[in-house]
Amino acid sequence: MTGQNMPQCYSKILKKSTITGLLTFFIFTQNAAAIVPNDASYAYQSKIWQQVGAEAAWEKTTGSADVALAVIDTGLDARHADLAGNLWQNPGEILNGEDDDNNGFVDDINGWNFVEENNNIETPTTDAGDDPGAVHHGTVTAGLAGAVGNNGLYGTGINWQVKIMPLRAIKNNGSGSLLNVAKAVDYAMKKGADVISLSLVGSDQDEFLEKTLRRAYDKGIVLVAAAGNKRKEGEGNLDEYPIYPICADLSAAGSVGSVGENWLLGATSVDGFDRLSDFASYGKCVDLAAPGEGIYSTERYSPAAGYNEQFGGAWGGTSFAVPIVAGAAALVKSARPEWRAKEIINALLSTADKIDAQNPGFAGKLGYGRLNIAKAVDEALKPGALADQFRDVYFISQNVVYRRDLAGDSQTIVSKVGEARALSLAMLDTDADGAREIAVLLQRGKFYYIRLMYANGAFIREFSLPPEIEKKPAVAVEIKAYPAGSGIVARMRKNGDGNDRFYLFDLTGKQKLSVKAARSAAWEMTSAGELALAYANKGKMRLEIRDWKGKRAQSWNLNRGANKIWSLQRANLWGEGAQWALVTARGNDIEYTVADFENSSFFTASIGENKKGVSWGMMIGPLGTLVLPYNSAGGAFGALDGRANGLKYFELPAGMGSAAAD
Predict the structure, then answer these.
(1) Does 73 qualify as catalytic in the annotation?
(2) Fold that domain 7-354 belongs to in CATH
(3) Structure pTM?
(4) Residue 554 CB: number of other CB atoms within 10 A?
(5) Catalytic: 197?
(6) Domain map of the chain by residue range?
(7) Which entry of 107, 137, 194, 269 is annotated as an active-site residue?
């Protein structure tokens, strides 16, 4: 282990922060005894991990390989024994010289290098003008957030298991362009990062970068940025000398965020006694403090270039407080996979330890206090809204409408439809009282009706579908609720007709609109009341949005084959916007796909076996943030988030037909 003292490096990097259009990270190093690392190297980290409550948090969770943490830095040592096992892998790419996932980056197996514009995410060690601190920097920060834990090697990151997505946007001299950082943020967003660590600062505000960061937050990604180390130069007060991107969320209202909206976490550094480090900046842009002195972590290893250690320190700077906070966010995410940025940020801020008493003169300038990971994880594991996502399920089985109480695992009959055939069911709030009613599509002979009833089965009204549907027997009719419960949409399909016909009825049965469209595999309503139509053709899936005049408003292709599309739902499965969830059959697998077409990203996982005679459906929870796939064979089914994490499992009966959750 090598102690390092690089005041010249520190001075040089500070000067670069004033260059227009450039970003840089800050390093401040301290003297430390030269110690050879061994399996007991955790002893060099134990003090800081105890200070932030990591050891207590590890009793509850040590991280998850389903959580992706992007480190935008100088790259890292991808072959490091303490990092290789936690390195993110692009599920849509193979090493073949082609852009398999069509994202514009060839062979981006583990991330991307935006400096040299290639897929080599390792920090080079032979560049002219290399700064040793910069060469180590990305490996140090990645190790703090996610070095493999409990493996007998070197130290550990806050997350013993996590997926580190390395994105090289900073050069080996410590500088980098705002554009490359924005590109890296965009890449991380589109490839499914949950947290982004930004141990870098710049003096210039950049609208493009800030808008890119804001889009990432809106997608549910936690962003953590450094406060910088300007205090010794007399420019440490960020209220007077703002730097970026940490101060981006204090922009004037009307740009990328409103004043007071905390969508980016700013991290500053404290010592082992929770005192503001003498180099660390402070002010309203700071949200949390974390240890940034006496830091030991993984280092870039390249003996041929003179980098002889794989673990070392002591490092210092707000750069190293950032991955500790980012790592804490990832650890909270592992405890509550369905949480997005807002919930994770609230958990971290609300549980921080107050440190104003240790810092006289800095009250209100160190954010919410010093990070306490143990308390944040405890907060995350408190019973929350998850249990309320799916309370009751209403479904049709053999002409009977049932209500299944998922909490009590009991089932009751809501209504028997003995005189007709029950085909389809939807739930909607017909009277805007906050309680949803049931709509059931019935068939009597060749005629079709829609019956409205209260959740207890009490009759409200019934109306017939128009003669156009009745005069030629339809082979498939299905209903869904129109947005805001203001109407019911019916899809009708006839033998020998290559089109589907859609009808919009108000709640008295009056036909308002109708349109025809090419026969689709599955359909849903958009929040604006347009038709979303899913097609499976020639190894690809396509989604079209059409208005009630038949005009195609939008269309997207998904390069993912499917034999059949069973169900389509629109849900807010990650971020602030909505995505499309599909249950499809592909070969012998039933797959669950979440597609964010506007951001060109998707996630797919196998959730079952494609068996003959077994049909599949999918319900969306009342909060709109989880979906519940199910099949006609019955069994235990998981309420899934955007990455197919089964957050709660429910036992559902065999024979379920059309169903909706309440």
Answers:
(1) yes
(2) Rossmann fold (3.40.50)
(3) 0.65
(4) 13
(5) no
(6) 7-354
(7) 137
